[in-house]
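<goal> How does this chain fold?
<body> The protein record starts here
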Amino acid sequence: MSQTAFWLIRHALVEENARAMMYGTMDVEVCPHTMETAHPTYAALARRLPRPATWIVTPLSRTRRTAQAIFDAGYPEAEWRVEPDLIEQNMGDWQGLPHADVPGLLTMPAHPFWPLGAQERPPGGESLAEVVLRVGAALERLASAHEAQDVVIVSHGGAIRAAVGHALGVGAEPALHLSVQNLALTRLERHSRGWQVICVNEVAGA
C-alpha cells in the first residue's frame, strides 16, 4: 500500500501545579502564559503542517486547545476526530500524586529518565508497555483507514514515545529514553514494507 504520513504533536505545556504531579489521563489545563507566548510556534506549525490532512485529538482538552491554537494561528480550520487509543498513559491510583511520592510505591526499578520503568503498572492504571501495544494498534488501524494520506495527531508525551517505540520495533523500555518536547513535531510514515521514523522533536520554524 502507499505510505501514510503521521504528523504527531505533543500538546502545549500544562499549568504549573499539574507539572508537579503525575497527571496521566487527568484533564488538566494548559498553561495560560504559554498559550499567549507560544503564538510564533503555533504559527510555524500552521505553516509546516500538510494541507489537507485528517486531524485527530485525544479525549483530553489539552490536545483540543493545542489544535485550536494552530487553527487560530493560520491553519485552515479543520474538523477533528477524537481517538481514545492515543491518550496518555493512565497512571491509575498514582494520578494526582506528587512526583516525590512515586519512588516509594514502585515494585520495579525506576527508569533512568522517567519515574517508573516500562513494565511497572500503577494500581488501576497501565504500564508503558501496554501503552505501546495500544498506540501501535491504533496507528496500524489509522494507516489502513487513511492510506496515502496525511494524518495530524495532537497527543501526549507518553503516547508519542509509544508511537516511536512501535515504529522502531524496540518496545517500551528504549522508548522511555526519548524526551518528547511540548509543541514539537514527530513524523512517522507507514509504508507497505514497514515503518520509517522521519524525525523526532522537530521544532517548527527553527
Q: What stands out?
A: Residues 86 and 135 are 6 Å apart (CA to CA). Residues 4-202 form a domain with the Rossmann fold fold (CATH 3.40.50.1240).
